[in-house]
Amino acid sequence: MRILLLEDASDVADAIIASFARRGDAMDHATTVAEAKDSIAVQDYDVAILDIGLPDGEGTEVLKALRAGHKATQVLMLTARTKIDERVSALDSGADDYLIKPFDLRELEARVRALARRNSAERAGIIEFGDIVFDPAGCTVRIGGQDVSLTRREFSLLEVLLANRGRVVPKAKIFERMFAFNDEPAGMNAVEIYVGRLRRKLEDSHVAIRTLRGLGYQIVAEG
What we know:
The chain is built from 8 helices and 13 strands. Helix 2 packs parallel to helix 3 and helix 6 (152-163) packs across helix 8 (189-201). Strand 1, helix 1 and strand 2 form a beta-alpha-beta unit. The protein is elongated and about 55 Å long. It has helices at residues 10-21, 33-42, 59-68, 84-92, 105-118, 152-163, 171-178, 189-201, and strands at 2-6, 26-30, 47-51, 53-54, 57-58, 74-79, 97-100, 127-129, 132-135, 140-143, 146-148, 207-212, 216-221. The longest helix has 14 residues, at 105-118. The chain is of the alpha/beta class.
């Protein structure tokens, strides 16, 4: 999942980034409205987490820019403001959800996962495909009833493929869902490396990853 975080409080941002990084999500962090607008101009996001009060304006400006650009990005607003009118205003401007500071990171993660599912056919949290049981909330994968250990990048890759099962996923789309702007430099060949690693861990399953040269990758159930 590719996420945009607009938050100028470094302690809050660091905690959020670390939390989502543990499960393999790619998160781009902006500290100003201008930086966030620059990000949405060049990158599509599954979910945007936008603080309302920023040094150079309000997160609702980014929200309005997303909606004006007809982006499918789900938006969760963060606010320290408790007035009902301000929260209603954010929702009326196109926000999909909001969370009042201070908040529990587990609740933020759950709300973001719920928002991300709105853009997919998967309404339930757990995905079952072939003999794989994929739980994004618990960050677990079971094959034939046995737990399988995946790195966060492998987990992220499997999530992208399962979310698009039955369809061919272009390498570029996989890349942008696995790596954020500030990640260590990585080329497209990084996708091939992680596909190879994930294939080895799926060898004993009834699921395979097909390579369609020039098109991308597709996860299929076999047997």
